[in-house]
Specification:
It is a single chain. Helix 4 packs across helix 17 and helix 8 runs antiparallel to helix 11. The chain folds into 4 domains: about 5-95, Single Sheet (N-terminal domain of TfIIb); about 105-165 and about 400-555, Rossmann fold, CATH 3.40.50; about 175-370 and about 560-585, 3-Layer(aba) Sandwich (Dimethylsulfoxide Reductase, domain 2), CATH 3.40.228; about 605-730, Barwin-like endoglucanases, CATH 2.40.40.20. It is built from 22 helices and 28 strands. Helices cover about 30% and strands about 15% of the residues.
Amino acid sequence: MSLKFSRRTFLKASGAVTAGVAAATTVPKKFLSWAEETGQKDMKQIPTFCELCFWNCGLVAKVENGKVVKVDGNPLSLRGRGRLCGRGNAALGALYDTDRLKFPLINIGKRGEPVWKRATWDEALGVIAGKMKGIKEKYGAESMALIYHGTGAAFWKHLMHAYGSTLSAAPSFAQCRGPRDIGFVLTFGSDVGSPEYYDFSKSKYIVLFGSHLGENAHNSQVQDIMNGLAEGAKLTVVDPRLSNIASKADHWLPIKPATDLALILAWIRIIIEEGLYDKEYVAKYATGFDELRAAVQKYTPQWAEEETSIASDVIVRVAREMGEFAPNICIGAGRFSAWYGDDTQRSRAIAILNALLGTWGREGGYFFPTGAKVPEYPGLPAYPEHVEVAKLDEVYPFALLPTTTSIKQASITGQPRPVKAWFVYGSNLMKTMPDKEETIKAIQNLDLMVAIDTMPMDIINYADVVLPECTYMERYDNINLGKFKGASEIALRQPTIEPLWESKPSWWITKELGNKLGLAEFFPWKDGEEYLAKRCQAGNIDFAQLKRDGVIISKGGSPYITAESQPEFGTPSGKIELYSKQLAENGFDPVPQFTRHKTPPAGYFRLLFGRAPLHTFSRTTNNFMLTDLQKENSLWINAKKGRELGLKNGDYVSLINHDGVIASGRIKVKLTQRLRDDAVYMNHGFGVHAKGMGRANGMGIADDDLITKAAIDPIMGGTALRGNFVKIVKGA
């Protein structure tokens, strides 16, 4: 993949990028010199993949004289298909951000009130290794936890296992998609994947619940749903807010918050009682139909209207439309699903609705993906024998992955076992976990807290040692495996330039720290390239092709049920479980049941939040290519309600929640008819409290400052993030 580009052509097409980088005067001069050069230049094209969100789209970096001057989508990538979203196109803003973490830092002050000492890598890793040895001797290896987000975490998990700890958790489970995944696993014996196995491009009917597709910029998924709509698919969106995708819907159902389960149960009843379900499919592949039918009899359309504020005739009409177009229908499982505390059951109800309509393994519904595997590095020694310890998540019987919920509680209470150290990789915990004061309390109880990041996020203020990782544009990383319809993808991340300042890739940091811990045998690779090359060699994968193209695509079998390709369900019964004996045996409702949730008291609104199309939460709010386009969030308020409160567009207000907590900063009012009058809405990721992030610090309000109550899903330990209420205070 080598093409020639004119510097003049590039500058004309992307002058704003060049101007932004040129203005970053503290970037080493050698990385700015292209702006002063003239004439035609040969431009290298280096494929890699993006990390500005978890979709990890393939990109091709245009590199001239050791500088990245442009990025384009990799046309071979199944995640992006040659396109990058607004965030992905801002790769240079992440790479050349002068606020980046540049050197290892040791906190000689207090957690939360840091006094930073610049350190060498040897000094910083020496401090960490010394602390780890002491903690292991006193409390055992399993007292150390890794909390992570991002591809590079694979090296940290390897280090932790070599050290003797299996305790690692991602906030994306308990605070995001965990309830969804467990709800589908309990029903189908499988989750819905990431990217999800939605066959939107072939759908004839699509239903979304609170899914801000497009605003979350899930690249190939957005392309698929738009292709499906272009081919005539009907769309129903259930959401208190008229999101961008809801604006394209045939039906927008502005549901009362916290009542989605009521609507789904009413739909299940209608589809059963009117015979709209796929009788042959249910008889062949499902179990528990009679029990399901009996359990939903009370959920009439008229009852659901009272709960949801959606007219009963509309509820019936949409149910009949779903039945008409089944099985070529996809009722989306969503992604962020940690809403109200009964989220596994809500997700299970969505799974049951899909099962009744026969969508699992059917064209236009949920496809069966093709997977790929790459062997681990050959010849590594076995990890230390696992020491049996009390399980942190035993109280949540279906926490199939460790939860940050339990790690935090064990760090505070020492029960059911002590957790005395956190490694926090690429995760701004001040903004990802609810109840910030509780998070701080947990951190203050630790013997060691290490942050590994590219930016000085809010969480950095509470670290003992900060390790500056280089950005995804500067490093080799773990191989990315993608499961898609009829094909699998192996994607390579490789450096496009040398790391800036003294930042380092995680393969190097963990190797050096492992050496100091006496674990050198677990890190035999010379560098990141050798690590990846030997894994590919072990799997007969052409590493030279992978470096050249960025991805290797392998074709797979049928994505749908056929006579020759029958589905397998990983449930105890081997069938789709409409009635779950697993849940019943653990004291939970075997069929989802509706529970009424609290509503906002007088003068308060339910606080809703979501993604901004141009930002990946706080990860990008300092990116100079994106802050120019959106520097702060705004508070959506129903226009009529806002006028009653004496508000007008552009006013700045502050917010106070039901516990009397006042959010730091102020937020601009946006009066709109696109939102119910009992809720307010804002983009998540703003209101950063990090002085080192010069563009983002203090811009807008952080919804996470106001999330002080979080009911816990008793089935899998997810934290409910939509159960908080706020009052608007004028005159901010």
